[in-house]
Amino acid sequence: MQASVCSSPHQVCFLQSKDIWVFCFFLSVRTKKRKCSASASACARGPDLFSSLGMVEEKMGACWSYTRDQFENLEKHTQWGIDFVERYTKFVKERSEIELNYAKQIRNLSKKYQPKKSSREEEESKYTWCRAFLASLNELNDYAGQHELIAENMTSQIIAELTRYIQDLKAERKTHFHDGRKAQQHIENSWKQLELCKRNFERACKEADRAQQYFEKMDADINVTKADVEKARQQAQLRHHMASDSKNEYSSYLQKFNQEQTEHYHTLIPNIFQKLQEMEERRIERVGESMKTFAEVDRQILPIVGKCLDGITKAAEGIESKTDSAQVVESYKSGFEPPGDVEFEDYGQAMKRTVSENSLTKPDKPDKSVKGKSKLFFFKKNKTPKQPKEALSHRFNDLMTSKPKMHCLRSLRRGLSLKLGVNPEDCSHLPPEQRRKKLQAKIDDISKDIQKEMDQRDALTKMKDVYVKNPQMGDPSSVDPRLAEIAQHIDKLQTELQKFEGWLAEVEGRMPVRSEPTNRQSSVYDRQSNTPPANNNCAQDRESPDGSYTEEQSSEVQTKVQTDTEFDDFDDAEEDLLPTIGTCKALYPFEGNNEGTLTLAEGEVLFVIEEDKGDGWTRVRRNEEEEGYIPTSYVEVFLDTNTKDS
């Protein structure tokens, strides 16, 4: 710190060399009028002493007061600087918490949209757009990790460092201001001691002056004895001697105080202020470094964030629409042949044939020679008359174009099992082509497991041979239990392999071969009847109630009407309906969207023809024409007494 004298004769300015801080101490001279009652001789002896004493008193009073004010201002300023560092530390801490929360939300978002561990995941992995989205989620997870790194670096490089620095800064500031207050206290005590010496000297001078005046008065009085005059003279000399001692003491303390004051204002206080200034400069520089680190922490992760974004871009560029569309064909190719052309049905010939038959039939004497059927063609036994039946080919055509009314129980139960999440082991719920692929994949997996077990068996066999040749290395019999276990496992796997290979051979044997378009295929439903299998082959439905395929293919039926016996056979099929075992009343409406089910209206009464077998479905009939399954929980069942007893 450099000292320079300003334009005012009583103004001293301490200027920092860099012109950053300026500490100015203004010394103003206050005019004081002193009254002195001392004698002329006393005043003649000490006029310069009182004059210098008054000047020092006035200078000291103004200088100390101003210094004290500046000290307090500096104390407030440095405390404000420390508060700023604490505030900035809190700002960085909140920024770090924001980064952590953001990273946590990004990770949760990525986890939320990750594919679930199910069979659907295998399906999604086939398509490039699904794989691209999965890669984007993984890159987004890495992106969240970079924001966690930001929070970690800010905590370790800024928050922790500034927290320690603030503690050191507070301790250093406390030390400097403690030294400053100590110096102020010392100069204040010196000033008080100087004031005490000054008052003692002033009092001694006044007493010496009074003693001198008293001696002169006694010496001038002729009535006073010589002894009294001598006594007054000695008293005056004593007082003058005491005043001289007080003067010397005051002069000594004054010289000492001036030295201490000079040292205080030119050495101690400037040094303390210099240390405070250096401390403040270090604090400011530290704040600047922290701000640079704040930006650098963000800048360090930019390359990795860029790689994450590049990974998302690369994944998006890897999407191939044509490959995905071809994969759809590969995934859903059923292997079924499209149906053949629909043949033309000549309804006119059927009508002519019906008229011809009616003309030959007598109502009162039915013909018993036709399969032993004692009934008219237009009437059923024990039933009210109905309209004439349509041709058999027309009925078959209706089966092709309308929703079937009856379905095989096996197909329905299979559909229900699929809804419950249980797939058949033979993959019969899939179309032939997809079933073949699934079975082939299963065979490949079993073959790999068999090969793995065989490798383990070979390794254990070699180990056993080593033990046999070198008994000290181990007991050969200790390997036998493991070999037996592996042999059993291999046998089990081979059995599984043969089972799946049999199913695969069955599928490959039933796979249709592309040929010329054939007649349209039809499906009839399995019933217990004596119908010859020549034209009415029972086939399982291709589609179960939930829309999945079964393994059986429908047989091809020729829809040609040749003789009148076909009409009788069709009548027999209708007469072989299952008997009713009770009734049921619908408690709730049921849509019946799946095939093999019936639509229910609330309050509707239906005939029960088959009880619930434990699968939650009851088979019912409506108007002796429509049959199907309904949920047992949707109806109230009333079984006949005979049925309950049986």
What would you say this structure looks like, in words?
This protein is of the alpha+beta class. The protein is built from 13 helices and eight strands. The chain has a five-stranded antiparallel β-sheet with strand order 7-6-5-4-8. A three-stranded antiparallel β-sheet has the order 1-2-3. The longest helix has 93 residues. The chain is elongated and about 190 Å long. The N and C termini lie far apart (120 Å).
What does the secondary structure layout of this molecule look like, with pairings?
Layout: E1 2-5, E2 11-15, E3 22-26, H1 40-45, H2 47-112, H3 119-124, H4 128-220, H5 226-317, H6 321-332, H7 347-360, H8 392-401, H9 409-419, H10 432-469, H11 480-510, H12 565-575, E4 582-586, E5 605-610, E6 617-622, E7 626-631, E8 635-639, H13 641-645
Antiparallel strand pairs: 1-2, 2-3, 4-5, 4-8, 5-6, 6-7
Domain REM-1: 429-506
Subcellular location: Cell membrane; Cytoplasm, Cell cortex; Cytoplasm, Cytoskeleton
Organism: Electrophorus electricus (Electric eel)
Count of alpha and pi helical runs: 13
State the total count of DSSP E strands: 8
Strand content: 5-15%
Share of residues in helices: 55-70%
Spatial order of the strands in the main sheet?
Answer: 7-6-5-4-8
Largest sheet: 5 strands, antiparallel
Mean pLDDT level: 72
Our Rg estimate from Cα atoms comes to 59 Å
Shape descriptor: elongated
**C-alpha termini separation:** 120 Å
Elements, N to C (H/E)? EEEHHHHHHHHHHHHEEEEEH
> What structural class is derived from the secondary structure elements?
alpha+beta
Give the low-pLDDT segments: 1-68, 359-419, 513-575
Subcellular location: Cell membrane; Cytoplasm, Cell cortex; Cytoplasm, Cytoskeleton
Region (Disordered): 511-563
Pfam families: FCH, HR1_TOCA, SH3_1
Domain F-BAR: 57-324
